[in-house]
Amino acid sequence: MMNCFLKEKKEIAEGTVLFTFDVPDAGLSYVPGQYVCLKLDLRFPDEKGPKRYFSIVNSPEKHGRIEIATRVSDTGFKQTLDALQPGDAGEITEIGGKFVLPEDAALEMVMVAGGVGVTPFKCMLDHLIRAGENRRVTLLYSNKNKATTAFYEDFLRLEASGCPEKVFFVMTRDDAWPGPKGRLNADFIRENIPGFQSKQFMVAGPPNFVGGITKALEELEISNVRLEKFFGY
Ligand SMILES: Cc1cc2nc3c(=O)[nH]c(=O)nc-3n(C[C@H](O)[C@H](O)[C@H](O)COP(=O)(O)OP(=O)(O)OC[C@H]3O[C@@H](n4cnc5c(N)ncnc54)[C@H](O)[C@@H]3O)c2cc1C
Fold it and tell me: How far apart, in whole angstroms, are the C-alpha atoms of residue 92 and residue 3?
């Protein structure tokens, strides 16, 4: 168990808030892609209890800190989280997960994110840039519309730095969006990802999203797949 203290919170897209916690414990250690279990003293009742899992947003190079991003809803936990003021405490009861970068740095990767499921990829990509690691990555990032797309500018900046090599922002309900629209599916991957069958796919998001992409990848006979389901959504 480690104590954490809210440093700041910031709305990064419509309905999505980034919470930054200071973690003074010298034992804080994780690999990009892993999650924390955050426990709060509930100020509002919540039938699912005082804990939730969140993928870590910030790369480990930002020492002594944990950032998480979530859609703020009306559950007691989310309302408690949103009511925290700078200096207020929470507990990190667990850090773990196997959804991490493949050991083979030469493997070309396709990251596929549904909404807030982009959090572990933000961490991995920031880490690759900061560590100067050269990997070939494409990011497919699905959202309802541009306004709800978290880290939009950050991913453009990362793309300009070369990792990912290419970001496809795909909107399911945004008539004004000039780029790709509709659901991410097998056709989209076939048309936009040359050599897809030999690439390592990593998929993260709400269980429904991950289930849909899994079917598309099966249809395309892609076998090199890692999944992170955000259970609870
Ligand atoms: C390994 C792991 C990592 C996770 N990482 C994150 C993370 O980085 N950020 C994060 O926000 N959550 C993450 N989660 C999920 C998180 O733990 C919560 O379960 C989730 O945020 C729901 O919170 P809530 O129970 O307070 O309910 P709410 O936020 O109210 O969501 C629950 C209900 O709201 C509806 N709903 C709201 N938004 C959606 C949506 N986008 N898609 C589908 N249904 C929706 C559904 O009806 C759902 O049952 C992760 C879960 C796991 C297991």
Answer: 6
